[in-house]
Each structure stands twice: as structure tokens, then as C-alpha cells.
Specification:
Largest sheet: 7 strands, mixed
CATH topology: Spore Coat Polysaccharide Biosynthesis Protein SpsA, Chain A
CATH architecture: Alpha-Beta Complex
CATH class: Alpha Beta
Number of domains: 1
Helix content: 25-40%
């Protein structure tokens, strides 16, 4: 184990196409779920573990998101640095564009639209405790596909008993889905492509070098990709929080 990251990035620039019509007038990270916007839920998690600085990239409905984040920064932690994109750079390009604000040490990256409930130990701390930069360039939080609420895909990865990760082949069904949270080392982005590209290319590079690892999430995780998913997740969260045995 090595030092825990002190900086994080939240990926919030995407178009949210599957969330239309909501995202025709609203950036997906500002969609409320059970009374709290998606991006505030993610930033709250980082605040809880004492992150010193969070970088947020912006593009779709940039003005709305920027105004919301500036208001939040006046009232709540963590301190924010905004990384606007004139052209959509996707996940990998967005991180590369933000590297000057992220620094030279390992950092968290989280999708702005992920929603999870922690187990006994916060997932972000579990990632930090598992992180070992002597053998890792990327450490992914993974959710078991069978327990990923609202997820119906074929999974993303296999996870061996030691924590090493392998992407599934096209004909396979994998038991884990990427949960949208990770720790990355800046060295992964040396000689990275320019312009827009997916973090999948970076993960594949780490896997080829046997430096891609994972941690299985031990709490609940919700796939919130469509307006129907929002309603279903709110109903599930309400059921989960409702006192049992009461009238």
C-alpha cells in the first residue's frame, strides 16, 4: 500500500444521450435522484474522505453546471477546480486536458453519474488502502453484475483472487461491471492520444503491462442511465431507507 490520493477528478462533460429528454435542457450530472443531484452525491463522497481538491470537466450545458458548482463551492467541500472543454474530449481526453490541475501523484477519477452506497468501509477508502503504485497504474472499483441494480449488460471484467483484472472477450460474459470509480497514476497518460478518446484505451494499456487491478465493491450500486432508471432507483432507495417493522 502507498499514500492515498489527495486529489480527485469528476467526469461531468458528457452529453447524456440515453437520459434524453431530461438532458435536452439539463446536464446529466444535475439530474436529481431522491432529492440530491448526481454530481453532488459524488462530490459528497470525496468530501467525506477529506479530498483536498476536486477537478470537474464541463461541456454539455456548461453554464448550468458551472453555476451550480460555483454555488456549491461557496458552501460545501471539497474545493473545486473547473476544467471546461470547448470540444467534447470523452473520458480519456478529458483527464489528459485536466492533468495540469491534477498534479504528478495518483488521483481518483469518478463518473459524475454513478450512485453507490458504501459497505462497512467507504469504497473510496477501500480503493486507497488497496492502492500500490509499485505494481499498479490503474485500480478500478468493480461491482458484481448480478447485484448491480438496473444493469442488464454482459459485464466488463474478470477479477482474479489477487485482484488482477482482465477485460472480457466479445464472446464472454464477465461477472463484474466497472462501477465508475478508480485510482489512476499520471504515468499512464505518457504518450496518450491527443484529442478525444476513451479511458478504455488507457485501461487496456495497463492490462497489457499487468498493471490493471480491481477491488470488488461491497455495498450497493445503481445503474442510472435513463429516465426510467431514475424512477426505479428512487423507488429502491426509498425502500432501502424505509424503517422496517413500523406502521
Amino acid at each position: 500500500m502507498t499514500a492515498a490520493p489527495h486529489v480527485a477528478m469528476v467526469l461531468a462533460a458528457g452529453l447524456g444521450k440515453r437520459m434524453r429528454p431530461l438532458t435536452e435542457t439539463l446536464p446529466k450530472p444535475l439530474i436529481p435522484v431522491a432529492g440530491r443531484t448526481l454530481i453532488d452525491r459524488v462530490l459528497d463522497r470525496f468530501a467525506e474522505i477529506g479530498i483536498e481538491r476536486a477537478v470537474v470537466n464541463l461541456h454539455h450545458h456548461r453554464g448550468q453546471l458551472e453555476a451550480h458548482l460555483k454555488q456549491r463551492a461557496e458552501q460545501e467541500k471539497p474545493p473545486l477546480v473547473l476544467s471546461p472543454e470547448t470540444e467534447l474530449l470523452e473520458t480519456g481526453g478529458g483527464v489528459v486536458h485536466a492533468l495540469p490541475a491534477l498534479g504528478d501523484a495518483p488521483f481518483y477519477v469518478a463518473n459524475a453519474d454513478v450512485l453507490w452506497l458504501d459497505g462497512y468501509t467507504p469504497a473510496l477508502l477501500r480503493l486507497a488502502r488497496a492502492w500500490d503504485e509499485t505494481k499498479m497504474d490503474a485500480l478500478l472499483l468493480l461491482q458484481r453484475s448480478a447485484t448491480a441494480f438496473g444493469y442488464e449488460g454482459r459485464g466488463d471484467y474478470f477479477l482474479d483472487p489477487l485482484g488482477r483484472v482482465r477485460r472480457r472477450a466479445s464472446h464472454e460474459v464477465a461477472p463484474f461491471v466497472f462501477a465508475g470509480v478508480q485510482i489512476l497514476h499520471p504515468r499512464l497518460f505518457k504518450d496518450a492520444p491527443t484529442g478525444a478518446f476513451s479511458l478504455n484505451r488507457i485501461w487496456d494499456r495497463a492490462e497489457a503491462a499487468e498493471r490493471l487491478w480491481g477491488v470488488a465493491h461491497d455495498g450497493l450500486w445503481y445503474h442510472v442511465g435513463t429516465p426510467a432508471d431514475v424512477a426505479a432507483t428512487e423507488a429502491e432507495l426509498g425502500h432501502f431507507r424505509r424503517p422496517r417493522g413500523g406502521g
